[in-house]
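hey so i finally got around to running both of the ones u sent me last week. sorry it took forever, my laptop kept dying halfway thru and i had to restart like 3 times lol. anyway pasting them below in the order u listed, first the sequence line then the structure token line for each. didnt double check formatting much so if smth looks off just lmk and ill redo it

first one:
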Amino acid sequence: MTMIQMQPRSANASPVHPMVGDAMEAAGPQVCDDMTVEVALAVTASARAGHLLVCDEDGLCTGLVTQTQLTAIRDSAAYTDQVRLRDVLGDRGPFTSPMTTMAEAEHAMRYRRLDALPVVDDQGSALGVLALSR
């Protein structure tokens, strides 16, 4: 699991340094990692969502997958209708904490070229999503 948090922050952080927890969006659609790519595409379409949070059998967030990523996987030569989300996500993460500063999170997202990043608690449960505005 890759947690993006550079330095621990106190619960009473200065308003000069806005925190991820203040800017994150609601978690949105969450699906289990044993779902097939085809079903995940149907869920994104029906939910009119650009991404899905993916959780394991214990309800812990394992990552985020976008509709664009799912479409690319489905259109690849190696695709079969048996490909599950856990097969395409790889390692867990990246994630961020609600106590990470916005500056740190934005820097990390731009460096990794991420449009959205799951926000998780200390146990790994999804709290929301941080999305960069364009």
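and the second one:
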Amino acid sequence: MIYRRVTLLDEIWAGAPFRDKGALVARVRATVDAWVSAGLLRRSDGDKVVATAGAASYKP
């Protein structure tokens, strides 16, 4: 049996394509919240991921 680990980035990009930067950041925030709730990510680390997504440039 082959197991594949799903990363945070895999789950974020599963929502692509994003209509705009706001949609991307919303997807990042929702995914981070789910991972934090599941105990897979610390809130402080998740906040950094969301902040980085918000500060990044975006070109559709």
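quick thing i noticed on the 2nd:
The chain has a mean pLDDT of 95.
anyway thats it, ttyl
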